[in-house]
Amino acid sequence: xxxxxxxxxxxxxxxxxxxxxxxxxxxxxxxxxxxxxxxxxxxxxxxxxxxxxxxxxxxxxxxxxxxxxxxxxxxxxxxxxxxxxxxxxxxxxxxxxxxxxxxxxxxxxxxxxxxxxxxxxxxxxxxxxxxxxxxxxxxxxxxxxxxxxxxxxxxxxxxxxxxxxxxxxxxxxxxxxxxxxxxxxxxxxxxxxxxxxxxxxxxxxxxxxxxxxxxxxxxxxxxxxxxxxxxxxxxxxxxxxxxxxxxxxxxxxxxxxxxxxxxxxxxxxxxxxxxxxxxxxxxxxxxx
Length: 288
Fold this sequence. Notes:
Blueprint: E1 2-4, H1 10-22, E2 30-32, H2 49-55, H3 61-70, H4 78-90, H5 104-126, E3 130-134, E4 140-145, H6 153-163, E5 168-172, E6 177-180, E7 185-188, H7 201-213, H8 221-227, H9 239-258, H10 271-278
Parallel strand pairs: 1-2, 4-5
Antiparallel strand pairs: 3-4, 5-6, 6-7
Helix pairs in contact: 1-2, 3-5, 5-6
């Protein structure tokens, strides 16, 4: 049994996995952990590494796409799972394993992938920036705090780079931080507490917008919590309004239902409308 540090990302795990495959090390002989074990090894590459690597079969693109997402999951067992699948695909000749949805390893990996994709979507939806000032070049500076369950910051950050390219920003999370300065996207280690919890006028503006767009006729509390779980509420400036809006939503909806409709406004007296009404009807052209 040898202990192997997978590193923090798919790239670092992939490099370690390549060396393990080159050494023909089976999954049951590996303990994926940052801390070295009593009988840890693989401090150096095997002597025949280049030969083995050139002889190794190519890895299917379907596995690479799956592994990139699974690598972002918070489960420490993800590295062993990925290597076990990789070993079967490359060394056992199970080239079509990724397509076997009923396989326990594949089913578990697909569930992890789904969880990661869903949380990336949540991060895109629930990050709220706060203005902290302006740089010497006049660019506005914003910060945000988010608390993901998985290591999704690097995967989610390009969305914010594209959408908020005209401002400098940082997103802080316990599982990694992302920073954009108008030219380059960079990443740093996570922080354990919110460094930007000073509310500003932007939050009040966002609350005003949220209150004005809230439609009580479409209120579905269970569905809302499915899409916006309560664990995200504490970091959303509009979350303090949700209980109040839900509480009064039915009353407002009843008022809307029982309020008599407004009288129909008369048609405007416009000359060109009268001319249009006087035009003869054009017969439909016969179908060819």
